[in-house]
């Protein structure tokens, strides 16, 4: 992913905003580019089978782009005014639309209730991190830690060759001094969300699983 390198481990607010925008654009480039490619095929007066292929590509890519936009809006966006709360049921819908792709499935064991927006944004960003611990696919299981508005979360990643990416583990650590660039902004942002909630995030190997915990 392309992006501007940070001059230090703690970007200022303007640079953090720019890095997050770079991250969102990176997530959308692939499906939007596929839509453009499909339209170019249609512009060339294709044979019927090529036209059907192009239309199928456009449909699938538009669906993917929409799911990613909705997820990013919730995970990285303002998501309402200060003090706003978000329905965990809506978070579940966004997470499934963005992450479940035939390789990864989600087991959602959280109750349906309203939580402060930063806590829900933290959960969605934990799912992005957990997704990266099972590069060959598998299952993400989300369980609550505690209850009510002070609820924490545990995301258990299960899959072939599950592992803890050390760079991500370092970036979510409050003691990290790693440089924050466009590659690293998402785990760094997860750390900021956890701190805003009075929590800390850890990545722990557990046999053939990885636990991503906010408590």
TrEMBL record:
<dbReference type="GO" id="GO:0016740">
    <property type="term" value="F:transferase activity"/>
</dbReference>
<dbReference type="InterPro" id="IPR036890">
    <property type="entry name" value="HATPase_C_sf"/>
</dbReference>
<keyword id="KW-0808">Transferase</keyword>
<dbReference type="InterPro" id="IPR018762">
    <property type="entry name" value="ChpT_C"/>
</dbReference>
<feature type="domain" description="Histidine phosphotransferase ChpT C-terminal">
    <location>
        <begin position="89"/>
        <end position="208"/>
    </location>
</feature>
<dbReference type="Pfam" id="PF10090">
    <property type="entry name" value="HPTransfase"/>
</dbReference>
<protein>
    <submittedName>
        <fullName>Histidine phosphotransferase</fullName>
    </submittedName>
</protein>
């Amino acid at each position: 992913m392309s992006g501007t390198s940070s001059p230090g481990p703690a970007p200022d607010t303007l640079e953090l905003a720019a890095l997050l925008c770079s991250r969102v654009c990176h997530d959308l480039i692939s499906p939007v580019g596929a839509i453009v490619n499909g339209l170019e095929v249609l512009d060339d007066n294709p044979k019927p089978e090529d036209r059907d292929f192009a239309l199928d590509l456009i449909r699938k890519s538009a669906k993917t782009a929409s799911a990613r936009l909705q997820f990013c809006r919730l995970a990285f966006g303002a998501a309402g005014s200060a003090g706003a709360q978000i329905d965990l049921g809506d978070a579940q819908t966004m997470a499934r639309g963005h992450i479940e792709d035939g390789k990864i499935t989600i087991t959602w064991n959280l109750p349906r209730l309203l939580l402060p927006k930063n806590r829900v944004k933290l959960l969605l960003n934990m799912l992005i991190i957990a997704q990266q611990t099972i590069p060959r696919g598998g299952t993400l299981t989300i369980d609550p830690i505690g209850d009510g508005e002070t609820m924490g979360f545990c995301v258990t990643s299960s899959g072939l060759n599950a592992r803890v990416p050390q760079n991500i583990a370092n970036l979510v650590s409050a003691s990290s001094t790693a440089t924050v660039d466009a590659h690293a902004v998402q785990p760094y942002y997860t750390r900021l969300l956890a701190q805003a909630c009075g929590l800390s995030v850890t990545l722990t190997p557990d046999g053939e699983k990885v636990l991503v915990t906010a408590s």
